[in-house]
Amino acid sequence: MPRFAEAAMDLKGMDGDRVVAVAKLDAERHTKAAAQLGVRGFPSLLLFVNGSSISYSGGFSREEIVMWTRKKTGYPVIRLTSHAMAEEFRSKHDIYLLGLFEDFKGPDYDEFLKAATTDNEIQFVEASDIDVAEVLFPNIKPQKQFLGLAKNEPERFIKFEETFEEAKILHFIQYNKFPLVTTLTELNSARVYSTPIKLQVYVFAENDDLKSLLDPIREVARKYKEKIMFVHVDPTEDNLAKPFLTLYGLEPEKPLVTAFDNRVGSKHLLESDLTPNNLEEFCSGLLGGTLSPYYKSEPIPETKEVVQKVVGKTFDALVLNSPDNIFLEVYTPWCIDCEATSKQVAKLAKHFKGMENLIFARIDASVNEHPKLQIDNYPTLLFYPSGDKSNPVKVSKKSSLKDLAKFIKTKLKPGDEKNASTEKDEL
Prior knowledge:
The protein has helices at 2-11, 31-36, 62-72, 83-92, 107-118, 130-136, 166-176, 189-193, 207-223, 238-248, 276-288, 315-320, 338-351, 401-411; strands at residues 46-49, 52-55, 77-79, 95-101, 123-127, 145-151, 157-159, 181-183, 199-204, 228-233, 256-261, 266-269, 308-310, 325-331, 358-364, 380-384, 393-395. By secondary structure, the chain is α/β, with parallel strands linked by helices.
């Protein structure tokens, strides 16, 4: 709301007598009005042009609200005609796309205007005087037209080298608008998550640690520009960091690096120290698709129980490569029915205690992963026959104890019961 109020002051009289009126509606108090507008979430911003509403799709800073409104009311580009105007514009904008055109007409200029109208995030600015344009983008060689992106970061000026087409201009912006290393914030998170760059490297480091790491990381990021997006996340920012760290099952005690390959939906972890060489090798593997995917796992347990605990790191050895029949319970701590199912599995394990070639096990899927264990419903009971671990049998979790015992017996080979305990718990 404070940023919306600030934007209102700018919108009150943007250019001469062109005014955008700004208003607010308490939807809890005026429910009928909110329903007529189709408002379902908050905050909702709507722009009305000639009676028709447009849902707001821009950022949430003062500048972004003003820029989006300008574009949607028919003024997508700011024209600069003097050094003073250029200096004032530069002082207010950290990022912009500059177009230099001799007379503001022609097919190339039309494509520039189309891109300016379509894009919702970057302020487009134009000039016809090269001296004025160079205030915003230095050292433009004498030419009839020019296009370049300027950002407030070390990689400040980027020249557009393609033909002037709307799609190519928008592509250029999408792949160049972020800094070499973007710090994730509440304000930019939506834009970061929606980036079209499919390969992303996330550096988790507290701000003090980042100071010594930033320049080396930027050097690596520069080599993978437009191919890999580099994002810094402060792990002390719980709302931003926790979803990622939970996904990896990690609690960083020192800076760490993770990555996503959204081409195939895999995640990765730099398991060596964060050095420029290790980071570059990691990024090269990410780009080439040769990195091993990362699957989270609890530490390997030191003791065995009646129902063996399986973790991500031991799933191959204890389940897939085991010569025994495995009855596996897949659960999560937050699952409503899991506790009752766990008690059933524990009773079954005691009942079949001592039986050769039969192991009861359980795995917490909230903190352990394996590529051969793709479960999305908990609890899940699986029986892995000793002769074919590639085709586990899904067992109904609604079965009674006696039915589960009968099922297990039908899956055992003759002679498997020869070492079973003579004292069995009643089911």
